[in-house]
Amino acid sequence: MVAWAEIIGAPDKRRRYRSARGKGGLVRIGWDETLEIAAAAHVHTLPEYGPDRIAGFSPIPAMSMASHAVGAR
Questions:
Q1: Which of 8, 44, 57, 64 has the greatest count of CB atoms below 10 A from its CB?
Q2: How many domains does the chain have?
Q3: How far apart are CA 12 and CA 9, in angstroms?
Q4: pTM (predicted TM-score)
């Protein structure tokens, strides 16, 4: 959580992180690191923006959280 908050909290680091996304510079990582990054982002978001920003429900499969969040920031 602290590492994620450090990236998101510092304007220069946040700008570098966001500008690097979508450029095809993917790095293969394992599931442990992947889950750690996702969990850190969720743990940071919860107290910062509230639980409604990380949880939701839709009876329509195409509007599931996974499908919907692909294009959302």
A1: 44
A2: 1
A3: 9
A4: 0.47
